[in-house]
Amino acid sequence: MTTLKEGDKAPAFTAKDQNGKEVSLADYKGKNVILYFYPKDDTPGCTAESCDFRDNYQSLLSKGFEVIGVSTDDEKSHKKFETKYSLPFTLIADNELKIVETYGVWVEKNMYGKKYMGTARTTFIIDAEGVITHVISKVDTKASSQQVLDLVK
């Protein structure tokens, strides 16, 4: 597993979004990107995090950021999640686990003594040249956008 860090080039990817459209990181060249990985659509923590990005989306756009969410859920699940919570940004379906593995966020987890593989909630801030400027591994789901803004002042 790769551990990406600040200063690394963000790995390229192409996958389908909630509308079945192919999206590549290259589509965002020249823009700052908040790439956030979350475990599962429509669960309490993931909903809080996504809605926080939604509620602060215009502020993030005004500061030059695009927001992209990634989970291993499929396009249909993402579309339902987007519609239910009026999410204004792209949600990438990584059900083949290519992006989560490339970014090093597909990890062994432990809940109630049961070990399983899952997505580690992580946010990568990527600059206009495609370089990772910050990695947030301890995400505050209720204030995720503020965590980003505090880092990029």
From TrEMBL:
Any single Pfam family the record assigns to this protein: AhpC-TSA
Tell me where in this chain the Thioredoxin domain is found: 4-153
Its GO biological process terms? cell redox homeostasis; cellular response to oxidative stress
List the catalytic activities from the record.
a hydroperoxide + [thioredoxin]-dithiol = an alcohol + [thioredoxin]-disulfide + H2O
Q: Does the keyword Glycoprotein apply?
A: no
GO function term, MF aspect, one: thioredoxin peroxidase activity
The protein's matches in Gene3D superfamilies, at most eight in alphabetical order, are given as: Glutaredoxin
Which keywords annotate this record?
A: Antioxidant, Disulfide bond, Oxidoreductase, Peroxidase, Redox-active center
Q: Which CDD domains match?
A: PRX_BCP
GO CC field:
cytoplasm
Q: What does this protein do?
A: Thiol-specific peroxidase that catalyzes the reduction of hydrogen peroxide and organic hydroperoxides to water and alcohols, respectively. Plays a role in cell protection against oxidative stress by detoxifying peroxides and as sensor of hydrogen peroxide-mediated signaling events.
**Which family is this protein grouped under?**
Belongs to the peroxiredoxin family. BCP/PrxQ subfamily.
Could you identify this protein by its name? thioredoxin-dependent peroxiredoxin
Organism, per UniProt? Mucilaginibacter rubeus
